[in-house]
Specification:
aa-tRNA-synth_Ic, binds adenosine-5'-tetraphosphate, Rossmann fold, 2 domains
């Protein structure tokens, strides 16, 4: 059985993009993979988080994953900082990875913008830590949204350079598993920007804890154009916001974009947004409700994460210890 590693940052409340690009895919992959799911709190602090928020967001995220169907009897769920193997391997990878490679990472450019000098060194070396997250488990498949594809290519570059520099065949090649539907969900306020849990505007995203009223309001206010829905996909070209709403509908209703358009052709956004609200509420509301129930017992969530960390440590510690020996560290 192939091993999967995937992570999500507790840098806010997970949004619909995280669900469609990652979480829903994780749930499905459990049937035929050995899964290691990680709340990457060390990645989250590459951008400042209030300690209180980070703690609450980590537990909320654990609850959302359980409510979405992550099975911690069969698979591993834990928070990154609880397993030291990640930091140990990340340091080695900081020394393997090249500045030229990091300079090409578009996520850093997007997040740092023009104010590059004022961002943390952690944000810059974020992809090296991500490579360590995956390779500490020698995971071969990584379910991610399309936005993370470049980081996985870098993971393979790091693995290859490590193997080459030390003359070993130690780290495997990693393959991205990108969901076909809604690989990239866009902001509700700007169809050219991806939906993001840390976007300053809460109106730009559907959060996985939103209730039906909040969802309805956000969809009602979502940016659109004044045209009606076309009968064919080609008619969505150049209409980023319209395309995004149709794509979200298709992904959540398990339909193709073509079928959604066939059903709603000629509709304006008033009625289409109402239909979309029903589809989103049907998918999200049960998860939000179960999350709320689970959040009432924090101790249980902490104990689930602790048990997961012990199982994660048992896999990662021997692999990272071996990598340290390869490098020449006295063990
Ligand atoms: N808009 C999106 N569409 C599809 N997939 C997405 N993912 C994130 N946004 C979208 C996928 O969710 C997984 C977890 O992401 P993450 O929390 O590790 O970091 P991120 O990609 O930076 O997500 P956010 O929401 O934008 O977080 P912030 O605002 O903190 O940076 C990944 O598999 C990602 O592809």
């Amino acid at each position: 059985m192939q091993r999967i590693f995937s992570g999500i940052q507790p840098s806010g409340i997970p949004q619909l993009g995280n669900y469609l690009g990652a979480i829903r895919n994780w749930v499905n992959l459990q049937a035929d993979h050995e899964c290691v799911f990680c709340l990457v709190d060390m990645h989250a602090i590459t951008v400042w988080q209030s300690p209180e928020d980070l703690r609450r967001q980590t537990l909320t995220q654990a609850a959302i994953l359980l409510a979405s169907g992550i099975d911690t009897e069969k698979h591993i769920l834990f928070n990154q900082s609880a397993v030291s193997a990640h930091a140990r391997l990340a340091w080695i990878f900081n020394c393997v990875s090249r500045l030229g490679w990091l300079n090409r990472m578009t996520q850093f450019k997007d997040k740092a913008g023009k104010d590059r000098e004022n961002h943390s060194a952690g944000l810059y070396v974020y992809p090296n830590l991500m490579a360590a997250d995956i390779l500490a488990y020698k995971a071969t498949r990584v379910p991610v949204g399309e936005d993370q594809k470049q980081h996985l290519e870098l993971t393979n570059d790091i693995a290859q350079k490590f193997n080459h520099d030390y003359g070993v065949e130690f780290f495997p090649t990693v393959e991205a598993v990108i969901p076909p539907a809604a690989a990239r969900v866009m902001s509700l306020r700007d169809g050219t920007k991806k939906m993001s849990k840390s976007d300053p505007s809460a109106q730009s995203r559907i959060e996985m804890t939103d209730d039906a009223d909040a969802i309805a309001l956000k969809i009602r206010r979502a940016k659109t154009d004044t045209d009606v829905l076309p009968g064919e996909e080609a008619g969505l070209e150049g209409r980023a916001e319209a395309k995004n709403l149709v794509t979200i509908y298709a992904a959540l209703a398990d339909m193709s974009v073509a079928d959604v358009l066939a059903q709603h052709q000629g509709e304006g956004f008033g009625p289409f947004k109402k239909a979309l609200t029903d589809v989103v509420v049907n998918a999200i509301a049960p998860i939000a409700q179960e999350t709320q129930r689970l959040m009432q017992n924090e101790d249980h969530l902490v104990s689930v994460l602790r048990a997961g960390a012990a199982r994660a440590h048992a896999i990662a510690d021997p692999i990272v210890t071996e990598a340290e020996k390869i490098v020449g560290f006295v063990k």
